[in-house]
């Protein structure tokens, strides 16, 4: 189980010859100090290490069409069917910026407390690859659309959900850029098949400063960013569909010494794997350095099956991207209430203040409201927001039941959620609706059934079938007897039956 | 100040241009000299111009689908194709090292 990280690692006491021991693959074997700050060399006698983790996150913008062309953005369409002449880089075509993509980037920048650059520029980043037909990617290297933001994220120490740690990571910048096409490697025929459906789709690259120190922090930060993007609607941020891609930059050094050489880790396909990949790489670097080796400034791929990072082919040596201004695009000018020009066409104006006013409640605000309105614990609010639709379900139940929210939350988190998890169901797929659950809780609250009977009713409700809790109770004769005389009679019968004892 | 062979090799590798012969290199040399004249201008306190379009308005397009769906036309350009995919070599084929290339730069 992952533990809270205080920022300093001790060398794992398990040594393996040449590279991290297999036991470390996929599992963090080093205990972290949860206090934060350097730990003096103690029992092991070895100098402590400070891992440094930075993230580059690419989020696909949720829009109908691509960043610079009017071809459709859609997952899983016939190959090369969503490709315009511009996307295929045919001569004579020019980029035309999609307004929706600009708005998505501004929303995201505002949500991450960034300064929005009222003037930002586009550049060309040159490199050769089969899925980049132009031979360059249009990006924002010199002056991106948003800079200097921050993201607060939380995670639990000790996995007990009782101690929540909140940290902040600085956002260096957010830039708009094009996605590349997809390469399918056919090793048997020694060729690559290229599908340009994804070429030109709008991306927001979110660059996080190296303020994190372990896989758990990186994972928590990305999870919070994912929730924010989904709340804004600027990206659906589903990692499995490639809408959210994370590259990790990892290095280690001794406290007080300069930063170590960093490696870039790619091919991380889930938040869980992100934590594993980062922790593995930290451990690999520590072991390499402690056995007298060096860390190369290279790009490595995460192998999820083995739980290890391996050097990536085609990425040898440092790249020279020959950045140059994109000659076909003027600067992107954004306005606010003060600078709004009087006579300009609405369609041509992106107003930062207008967007700011319409930002939805971010996850952190939603959590605070849930805690304040319902008196639930902060860690409960995290779980509610972590599961798609769960917070809404909870609020619907509370509306329809007399049971206090503090009691309802127990049923939601312990009974409902664990059942859904066990059966790999989403909240939307729940056999019990919020209405039925509220009904059920009302029976309990009015003391019409005992808690033992309640478990039976619940089990029956899970089967689906549309029966109401009351119908189940009547069918199985589980009603609690309230009548005094009836109770006396039953007791008397029991006593009579044991007269002999 | 001449352009070194190292730089020329680097450029050939990055941009896949072929300087071909002394005339090609000389042309590059002259282009650099021409551009170097910019250094003669005092630009203290002047904002750099990054585009002749800097005073133009960047047109913003509405997010409506207007293009795509022309796979057959696009694939006509493909030297090789498999079903509806373009075919490319398994990976980048890097330019051979300077010593191993048949080039004027040698």
TrEMBL record, chain A:
Report the record's Gene Ontology biological process terms: glutaminyl-tRNAGln biosynthesis via transamidation; mitochondrial translation
One molecular function GO term is: transferase activity
The answer, when asked if ATP-binding is one of the entry's keywords, is: yes
| Asn/Gln amidotransferase domain: residues covered | 392-501
**Keyword terms of this UniProt record:** ATP-binding, Ligase, Nucleotide-binding, Protein biosynthesis, Transferase
Tell me any Pfam family this protein matches: GatB_N
What domain of life does the UniProt record list for this protein's source?
Eukaryota
The catalytic activity, as recorded, is: L-glutamyl-tRNA(Gln) + L-glutamine + ATP + H2O = L-glutaminyl-tRNA(Gln) + L-glutamate + ADP + phosphate + H(+)
Query: GO CC terms for this protein?
Result: glutamyl-tRNA(Gln) amidotransferase complex; mitochondrion
Q: Does the keyword Oxidoreductase apply?
A: no
Family the entry assigns: Belongs to the GatB/GatE family. GatB subfamily.
Q: What is this protein called?
A: GATB amidotransferase
Whose protein is this, by species? Heliornis fulica (sungrebe)
TrEMBL record, chain B:
A GO molecular-function term, please? transferase activity
**Name of the gene encoding the protein in the UniProt record:** Gatc
Domain of life, per UniProt, equals Eukaryota
Q: Which HAMAP family match?
A: GatC (MF_00122)
Q: What is this protein called?
A: GATC amidotransferase
Q: InterPro entries under this entry?
A: Asp/Glu-ADT_sf_sub_c (IPR036113), GatC (IPR003837)
Query: What Gene Ontology terms describe where this protein resides (cellular component)?
Result: glutamyl-tRNA(Gln) amidotransferase complex; mitochondrion
UniProt key word Transcription regulation: no
């Amino acid at each position: 189980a992952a533990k809270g990280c205080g920022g300093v690692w001790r060398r794992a006491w398990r040594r393996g010859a040449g590279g991290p021991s297999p036991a470390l693959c996929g599992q963090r074997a080093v205990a972290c100090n949860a206090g934060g700050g350097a730990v003096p060399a103690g029992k092991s006698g070895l100098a402590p290490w400070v891992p440094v983790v930075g993230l580059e996150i690419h989020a696909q913008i949720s829009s109908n069409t691509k960043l610079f062309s009017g071809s459709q953005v859609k997952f899983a369409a016939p190959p090369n069917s969503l490709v315009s002449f511009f996307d295929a880089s045919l001569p004579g075509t020019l980029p035309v910026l999609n307004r929706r993509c600009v708005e998505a980037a501004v929303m995201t920048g505002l949500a991450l407390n960034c300064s929005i650059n009222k003037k930002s520029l586009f550049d060309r980043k040159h490199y050769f690859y089969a899925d980049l037909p132009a031979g360059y990617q249009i990006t924002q290297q010199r002056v991106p659309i948003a800079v200097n933001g921050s993201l607060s994220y939380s995670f639990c120490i000790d996995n007990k959900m009782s101690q929540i740690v909140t940290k902040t990571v600085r956002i260096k910048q957010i830039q708009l850029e094009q996605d590349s096409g997809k390469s399918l490697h056919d090793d048997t025929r020694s060729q690559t098949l290229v599908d340009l459906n994804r070429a030109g789709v709008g991306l927001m690259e979110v660059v996080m400063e190296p303020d994190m120190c372990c896989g758990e922090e990186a994972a928590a930060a990305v999870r919070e960013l994912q929730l924010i993007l989904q709340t804004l609607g600027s990206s659906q941020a589903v990692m499995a569909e490639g809408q959210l891609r994370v590259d990790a930059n990892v290095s280690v050094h001794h406290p007080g010494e300069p930063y170590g050489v960093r490696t870039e880790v790619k091919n991380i396909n889930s938040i869980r794997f992100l934590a594993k990949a980062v922790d593995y790489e930290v451990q690999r670097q520590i072991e390499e350095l402690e056995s007298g080796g060096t860390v190369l400034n290279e790009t490595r791929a995460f192998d999820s099956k083995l739980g290890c990072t391996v050097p990536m082919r085609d990425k040898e040596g440092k790249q020279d991207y020959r950045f140059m201004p994109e000659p076909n695009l003027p600067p992107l000018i954004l306005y606010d209430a003060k600078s709004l020009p009087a006579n300009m066409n609405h369609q041509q104006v992106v107003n930062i203040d207008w967007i700011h006013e319409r930002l939805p409640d971010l996850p952190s605000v939603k959590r605070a409201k849930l805690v304040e309105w319902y008196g639930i614990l902060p860690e409960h609010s995290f779980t509610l927001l972590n599961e798609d639709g769960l917070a809404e379900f909870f609020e619907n139940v509370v509306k329809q039941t007399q049971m206090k929210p503090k009691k309802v939350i127990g049923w939601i988190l312990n009974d409902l959620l664990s059942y859904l998890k066990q059966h790999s169901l989403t909240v939307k797929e729940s056999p019990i609706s919020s209405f039925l659950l509220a009904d059920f809780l009302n029976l309990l609250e009015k003391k019409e059934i005992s808690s033992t009977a309640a478990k039976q009713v619940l089990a029956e409700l899970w089967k689906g079938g549309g029966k109401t809790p009351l119908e189940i109770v009547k069918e199985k004769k589980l009603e609690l007897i309230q009548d005094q005389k009836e109770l006396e009679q039953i007791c008397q019968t029991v006593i009579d039956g044991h007269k002999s004892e | 100040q001449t352009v070194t062979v190292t730089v020329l090799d680097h450029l050939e590798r990055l941009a896949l241009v072929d300087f071909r012969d002394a005339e090609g290199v000389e042309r590059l040399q002259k282009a650099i000299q021409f551009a170097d004249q910019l250094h003669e201008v005092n630009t203290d306190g002047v904002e750099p111009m990054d585009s002749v379009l800097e005073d133009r308005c960047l047109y913003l397009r509405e997010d409506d689908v207007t293009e795509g769906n022309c796979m057959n036309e696009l694939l006509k350009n493909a030297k090789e194709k498999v079903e509806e995919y373009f075919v490319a070599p398994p990976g980048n084929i890097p330019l051979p090292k300077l010593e191993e290339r048949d080039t004027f730069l040698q």
